[in-house]
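The pair is quoted verbatim below.
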Amino acid sequence: MTSWTAEKPSNIALIKYMGKKDKEKNIPSNSSFSWTLDHLTSKVELQTHAGDSDTWEPGESDFPFEMSPLGREKFLNHLQRVKDLFGVKEKFKVKSANNFPADCGIASSASSFAALTEVAFKACEDLSTKKFSTKEKAMMSARGSGSSCRSFWSGFVLWEEQSLGPKDFAIDSLNHMVVIVGGGAKKVSSSLAHKKVESSLLFKGRAERTSQRLEKVLGNLTSGNWENLYQVVWAEFWDMHALFETSEPSFSYFLPGTFEVLEKTRNFWEEKGDGPVVTMDAGPNVHLLWRSDQKDLALEFYNQNLKGHWTTLSNIEDIGFARV
C-alpha cells in the first residue's frame, strides 16, 4: 500500500463567484478575487487499495463530518477526472478532514477540492511520467469546485475565466477572523445556489456590477484606501445575498446572529473611523479581515462584541479559537 497526502487552505472572496457560463466546466459568469486563509485548511490522504472502486471516509479532525452521498460522488468523480488525465487505473481509499467546520460558509469545498486535486496530481505523477504546472492543477481543481482554484496561492488571487494567479499589493498581510453564528450544514449548497440565482431579476446585471467593483477593489488596494475597500466589499457580499433573497423561490443563509454581528461591525466603523473589511460566503457566518497594524483594534472589537457570545476562528493570538 502506497499513500500520499496534501493540505490546502480555504479562501474568502472579496468579489464573489456566483453563477456559471458553463455548468459542466464550472466556468464563472464573472471574475472573482479572494484572500487565501492559510490557517483554515483541509487535508486529504490517498492510499492505494485492492478494491474495485475508489472510496471515501472521514479523516481525523476536531471537526468531524460525514459527506453526503451526492457530495461523496462529486468528490470521487473529481478524483477520477484527474486519474483520466494521466491514464491511471489504480484504485484509492480517500480520507479527508478540515481543521474548521464544514458546509457552513467557510469555503470548505474550496480547500477540500484543492487538497484533493493536489494529492491526486502527486499520486498520478508518481504513477506516470506526466507533469503539470500549478496553474494547470488549479484550473483542473476548478472543474470540481470553482473557488478551489484560488486556494493554490497565498495572498490575493484573481480568477478571470482562463486567467488565474496571485496579485501583489502594498497591503500584503492580513489577519482574519470568522464569527461562527451557525455551524450546521447549509440547507442550500453553494452548487445549488449557483443554479438558483439565475432566476433572480438581479442576476442579469450581476457580471457588470462585479466588474465595476473589481476595478474599485484593485484600485483601493493599490492606493491603500482601506475605508473605500470596506465599502465596496460590503456592497458586494450584500449583492450576492440579494440574489438569494430574490430567487424564485427565495432562500436565505442569514440567521439572527448574522444581522447582529454585521451591525456591530458597522457601529464599530462609525465609532472608530476604522475597522475590518467585512464579507460573507454562501452561509451565515461573518468574515472579518484586518490589516496587520490593526491587531489592537481587532482585540478591542473581539473583547467588546464577540467574546463569550460566538465561537471565533482566527489567526490572531488571544482571539477566540485561534488557528495559526
